Amino acid sequence: MKVSHLASLLGALCAISPVLSQDSPTLTPDALEDLVNRDALLEHARQFLAFSELSNGTRAFGSKGHQATIQYVAKLLEATGYYDIEFEEFTYSYSEAKAQFFADGKEYLTRGLGYSPSGDVTGSVVVVNDLGCNPTDFPAAVKGKIALILRGTCNLGLKVAHAGGAGAIGAILYNNLDAEPISGTFGAPSRPEGPYVPSAYISGVNGKAFIASIAAGNEVIANIRVQSLIEDRVTANVIATTKEGDKDNVIVAGAHSDSVPAGPGLNDDGSGSMGILEVALNLANFHGLQNAVRFIWWSAEEFGLIGSEYHVEHLSDDARQKVALYLNFDMIASPNAGYFVFDGDGNATDIPGPPGSEVIERLYRAYFDSHNITAGSAVFGGSSDYQPFVDVGIPSGGLMTGASGIKTAEGALQWGGDAGVAYDVCYHLSCDVIENLNVDVWERNSKAIAHSIANYALSIEGIPRPVREPVRSLRVSKLSYEERLHLSCDHDDELI
């Protein structure tokens, strides 16, 4: 475990008096922002990367790497004496599949699919009729062979269950776009329509090439190899609330602490987690907070916003009422970054946040304007941990820098970087390491976080505080497993 700096960090913080003296400086936005710097952010990044090495390169929820991450966050904050710390535990089903796919002796890029059974199968490829959403789409010839199925209309698990029910020994799902798929899941451990079979998930280009070859009279022989893990895992959100400030007006800032199983997640969302951690550690130097500040590191975001939904759904109506606003930071250091602010008033995206969200948007835009940065707009599309707060009417906002979407020529002129290239070419991949972080953008966004936290800790003028209606269930809780997982994987649907 390469965490040699952890002891020195904790030792330095433990030397801080747990109670601020009267000589401690009074909080101002400029003073807090000035303390945030790249050296400290990069020190956290080295620790997060080391934690991922405890779990074969991942910090997926419930893994040793993720457990080390949340313990690190909690210990650093506890050492300041400035916060009340809580671990909010819950249990959720974890699934992970690693796959390899070969056709006619050539290996192709594939994605493992959650709940795909383990196996090593070889056979001729048979093209399925239509979309594979009905048993009648599967010809008799698929028995004992490998079904080739187009993504779309119904969920992936249903298609594969129908393949198993028709006697197929394996399934190849190909994207309904030419691009490689990012990730996928069958959505449930089993289905009554038939047994799951080992499955691969490939690009639309490759899928259509196999169809063309088969139509030309060629036999395509495929080999699918899958290693799968399915288990319930206990995990936790880390919650740190300032001891100072009005607890009837709580400013909540959040970022998810877990990565995808495929990599260490230094940008997604190590960048947001480390950004709010550094702001929280530096906030501990000040007194004079008028409103309480609560930092939360969400778990299991990558499995469908599980931690944030659990938290909001388990708040009492009174506790929800005390949350004045929510700020979300998910991917703030993309290597080919754009600067995006959530569109609180809905002017750019036609999807406003709850009343008061427009006030948050104006604060961030004014901040970036003061640094001669033009900010784009991000839509409240449901793809990160703000969604449960939006569902219950809490004013929300935040920052992001883009995922697998392609930067436009206009974006390259505004922010630099490369047009025609993804904002983060390592999104959800093993290469999301320290070298993947745009440190200049990360530092600026972390300073913007400090600016907003300090402003709202001092005043929530302009943020409405009506009595909110009780909410008995959240939109996210009504979605299927697959629909929930899709929420956490679609950051690029949010950018305008």
Automatic annotation (TrEMBL):
Residues 237-451 form the Peptidase M28 domain. It comes from the Eukaryota. It is an enzyme of class 3 (hydrolase). Pfam families: PA, Peptidase_M28. GO terms for biological process: proteolysis. InterPro entries: M28_fam, M28_SGAP-like, PA_dom_sf, PA_domain, Peptidase_M28. Residues 121-209 form the PA domain. Keywords: Aminopeptidase, Hydrolase, Metal-binding, Protease, Signal, Zinc. One of its GO terms (molecular function) is metalloexopeptidase activity. Transmembrane segments: none annotated. Its cofactor is Zn(2+). Belongs to the peptidase M28 family. M28A subfamily. PANTHER family: METALLOPEPTIDASE M28 FAMILY MEMBER, PEPTIDASE M28 DOMAIN-CONTAINING PROTEIN. This is Peptide hydrolase. It comes from Coprinellus micaceus.
